[in-house]
Structure formats: structure tokens, C-alpha cells
């Protein structure tokens, strides 16, 4: 649902059955009966990874390099460089700041390759 902008940074990975919902009915019952909705943007930074079945609501910003665990519902901003999960999604832990040595030399590689190759 995209009545407001949804902006994705570079190299974002999105698992199956994820949803990004910028629109929501208003809280006021009279307004809901009249069909009013509110729409707020979603902003996703670079290198973010969404596990399967993540839902993100409007008004949320997700920072660079973060990982959102499968099945999470993101209703608040998520900072950069963290793993967040749950309903509602909460920060579980920060991500390490250094790159794992296993991936040296693969930074610019493209194509089909497998872990441990």
C-alpha cells in the first residue's frame, strides 16, 4: 500500500511475503466510518536485510546495514547497524562494526556463488 513514498536504499534484501504499508485507518471511529486513512512514508537505508514475512508500517525509518528478523512487525524506527526482531520489532543486539575476514575479496563479486565457496 503506497499512498505515501516508500524509499529503499542500495543493496536492500527482502525476503518472501514482506509487506510495506504506508496507509492506516484513522483512530477516530467517525473518521473510519467515513473511510479516512492516514499515510506516512517508509524509509529504508542501504544494505538492510528483511527476513521472510516482515511487515513495516508507515512513519518508520530503518537505518543502514540493519537486519530485521523473520516475522517481525516494525512499528518504530530501527537504528543503523543492529539486529531487530519481534512484534513489535525491538533491537536485539548491535552488529559488529568490522567485516568478517571470510568475505575478503568478495566485495565486488556478482553472480551465483555459495557460502563457504
Question: Which tags fit this structure?
Answer:
single chain; 117 residues; five-stranded mixed sheet; 1 helix; 4% helix; elongated
Description of the molecule:
This protein is mostly beta strands and 117 residues long. It has a single domain (6-103), classed as UDP N-Acetylglucosamine Acyltransferase, domain 1 (3 Solenoid). The chain is built from one helix and 13 strands. Strands 2-7-10-12-13 form a five-stranded mixed sheet, with no helix packed on it. It has a three-stranded parallel sheet with strand order 1-6-9, with no helix packed on it. A three-stranded parallel sheet has the order 3-8-11, with no helix packed on it. Strand 12 (82-86) and strand 13 (89-94) form a beta hairpin. The protein is elongated. The mean pLDDT is 89.
What can be said about the biggest beta sheet? 5 strands, mixed
Helix fraction, binned, reads: under 10%
**N-C termini distance:** 39 Å
Based on CA atoms alone, the radius of gyration comes out at 17 Å
Q: Could you say what the CATH topology is called?
A: UDP N-Acetylglucosamine Acyltransferase, domain 1
The name of the CATH superfamily reads Hexapeptide repeat proteins
Question: Rough shape?
Answer: elongated
Give the count of structural domains.
1
Q: Specify the number of helices.
A: 1
Low confidence ranges: none
Element-by-element helix/strand order = EEEEHEEEEEEEEE
Proper CATH architecture: 3 Solenoid
Amino acid at each position: 500500500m503506497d499512498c505515501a513514498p516508500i524509499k529503499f536504499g542500495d543493496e536492500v534484501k527482502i525476503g518472501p511475503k514482506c509487506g510495506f504499508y504506508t496507509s492506516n485507518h484513522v483512530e477516530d471511529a467517525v473518521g473510519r466510518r467515513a473511510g479516512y486513512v492516514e499515510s506516512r512514508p517508509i524509509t529504508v537505508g542501504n544494505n538492510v536485510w528483511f527476513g521472510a514475512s516482515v511487515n513495516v508500517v508507515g512513519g518508520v525509518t530503518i537505518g543502514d546495514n540493519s537486519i530485521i528478523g523473520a516475522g517481525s512487525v516494525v512499528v518504530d524506527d530501527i537504528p543503523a547497524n543492529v539486529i531487530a526482531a519481534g512484534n513489535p520489532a525491538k533491537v536485539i543486539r548491535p552488529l559488529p562494526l568490522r567485516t568478517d575476514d571470510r568475505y575478503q575479496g568478495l566485495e565486488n563479486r556478482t553472480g551465483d556463488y555459495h557460502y563457504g565457496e
